[in-house]
Structures are given as structure tokens and as C-alpha cells.
């Protein structure tokens, strides 16, 4: 009665917390997802979760299937890796470059998990802040670039990892706390704290300030997220950062944040790889591992 797709569906529902987001994660329409769950409930003759609860509240039967999913799905993944190795796809090189200061929080656990399953793959990690990583990727100097600024290039494929919201972080006493949303002109007389990256590569400039023709009064830089948070909390300026990067600081009541614009500034993070490595078994598994870990650990992200 219980199929593999049911285990994947309930796991996605637990991790996403809603039918809409769960459907996006497993690439189904919401109606198809609801139909699949209802079909399983009819087969089992019991409900799996309590409707109209947020976050999703599972029944005892639903919890039992989730326990089964936690046991079975990793076994399936491991078996698939073993088969890929037997087919001769175990060796390779994976030199990663990131254009995202705050990505270390999820990338390092991804690499640690991947190394355990693919010890034969040679790995290296560098940052792309002192050179142009996409031309280096095309030349074969590196193998994967984490970027939010895709550029159309022959032979390069962009695999979407997740979508996130860029929000404005500020101290709890800041004058802009009174605003429900931030408009570009609100930053004209503010000190904006950013990572030391060219402005045209920063979400806040590319998608918010530049289209409105607005510049902040001053731009100050810091390489570390924790240092930016200290500066923000002490009233030294404001900073536009990914929602997941500042989630813990908001939870600790250290700072607060507001959306950029009425609809918010939503961006997508991509893994750029060469077309000739798109189907390499170790590359496919690394991308799947990255998505699995980010959706398990990061708050506020959505399927891309």
C-alpha cells in the first residue's frame, strides 16, 4: 500500500510545512499532491495529518510513515550511489568556487556529507571575490560556481538551488523600524553595510537601488556576517542580506528586519557547471545533497 513516492511526499510536507511548498519541492501541482495524499489515506483508512494546521501537525499514523521514510530514503540514496560507483562513475574532480559570503553556513555541511559518500572525488574550495569565476569555469580551471548572478555563456548550465528573500537588517531602535516595507529612497541617507563585493553583483543594488536610481549616503564593508550583525545591532548602519543568513540573529532578538519593497526582493542561487559534467554521477549527487541540506537547515527559502 505504501510506495516510495508516498515517503518522499510526506517527507517534503514535513520539511516544507505547507502543501504549496511541498508540491513545489517534488515538482507536482498542489492538486496532484493532495490527491496523492488522499489516495494513501484511503488505502490506509486513516488520516495522516490534521488539516489547516501551521506548521503541519501529523497524526500518529503520519508520524509512523515519516519514521519509515527516515529509514528507507537514505538507504535508497546510498544504494544509488553504490550502483553509480559500480558503473564506473566514482572518480573525478570537484573544485568549487563561491560568490556568496554567507553560503559557508550550508556549503560546508554539504561538502562534509558528500566527502563521506564520494571519497575518491578530489575536492577544493575557493572564493570568487578576487577573480572572475565564470570564465575560469568555462576554461576548466574550476568545476562548479555558486552564484546569484548567472551570465549566459556557451557550454555553461545553471542549476537552481533555491530562492531566497533579501531583507534589510537594522537595529531594533532604528528609525526605519516604523516602516512595514522599505523603499529605495529610504536608504538615501543611510550607511549601507555590505560584503566587499562590486556593487553591481550585490542584490540590493542590482534589484532594488539601481533600478530606482538611488545611492546610499555611505557604503561600508565587512567580510564576516557576524561582524555585519554587530555593526547593525549597534546602529552603525543597515544591511541587506539573505533572510536565511540573519534568521538566527532575529530569533535571538539581536536585530530586526524589513522587506525591500512591497513585493520583496527575491533572488535565486544557482550552481553553475559545464555542460559536459551535467550528468556525471558525483556532480548530480553533490547538487542533490546541497538541495537536501539547505531545505533541511535554512529558514525562509523556497524551491526555485
Automatic annotation (TrEMBL):
Among InterPro entries, the record links this protein to: LysR_HTH_N, LysR_subst-bd, MetR_PBP2, WH-like_DNA-bd_sf, WH_DNA-bd_sf
Which residue range or ranges hold the HTH lysR-type domain?
A: 2-59
User: What is one cellular component GO term in this UniProt entry?
Assistant: cytoplasm
Q: Could you list the residue ranges that cross the membrane?
A: none
Q: Kindly list the biological process annotations in GO that this record carries.
A: methionine biosynthetic process
Tell me where it mainly resides: cytoplasm
Please give the family membership noted in the entry: Belongs to the LysR transcriptional regulatory family.
Descriptive protein name: HTH-type transcriptional regulator MetR
Q: What is the lineage of its organism?
A: Bacteria, Pseudomonadati, Pseudomonadota, Gammaproteobacteria, Oceanospirillales
